[in-house]
Amino acid sequence: MTETVVHLVRHGEVDNPGGVLYGRMPGFHLSELGRQMAKRTAAYLAERDITHLVSSPLERAQETIEPLAETLKLPVELDDQVIEAANDFEGLTVGKNPKQLLNPRFWGKLTNPLKPSWGEPYAEIAERMEAATRDARAAAEGHEAVIVSHQLPVWIARTHFEGNRLWHDPRRRQCTLASVTSIVFDDDRFSRVVYAEPAGDLLPGATEAAGSATGRSK
Fold this sequence. Notes:
Layout: E1 3-10, H1 32-46, E2 50-55, H2 59-72, E3 76-78, H3 122-139, E4 144-149, H4 151-161, E5 180-186, E6 189-196, H5 206-213
Parallel strand pairs: 1-4, 2-3, 2-4
Antiparallel strand pairs: 1-5, 5-6
Helix pairs in contact: 1-2, 3-4
GO molecular function: phosphatase activity
Protein name: Phosphoglycerate mutase
Organism: Flexivirga endophytica
């Protein structure tokens, strides 16, 4: 059997002081910390046998893959199949102000969280992410590929390949900023998932958590 690995990378931290649910909106770039995360993930992947690079067309994804592309001297293919999930609340600040959802004009969007009713259905995300992952597998057959995408598409791809239900609690996604979810194939058959957080120590709160674990902070 021939092993091929497709690494699904979530982009780094975005400069978003207003807490906007930016979705597919243009003009949202990596923060300085996000650029550090991108470099850390690039260093983690640079020693791998990577022959094919793919990115979501959104700026934050392209900026995340840039350090790796420069290191490996490989071109980056932009693929709409790995773009962020569509969301009807795009442009709002529902994270900071969830009371916005009490507006009657949003009630029809909140009827089915299992689908979900407020955006692109999970099944459609799974379909396009599987297609993109298999395209990358074919392009890098016998080697490795990298796709930089977004949290929900990466998590749905993993869930789909592992055969688990697609609806979930967003707070329980194992897909931190600049993380690497590696989909391993034997020939063209899915084999397993390997997960890594190369920039884990750069995540917001990581220093405090480490200090608490060693008794240095409360």
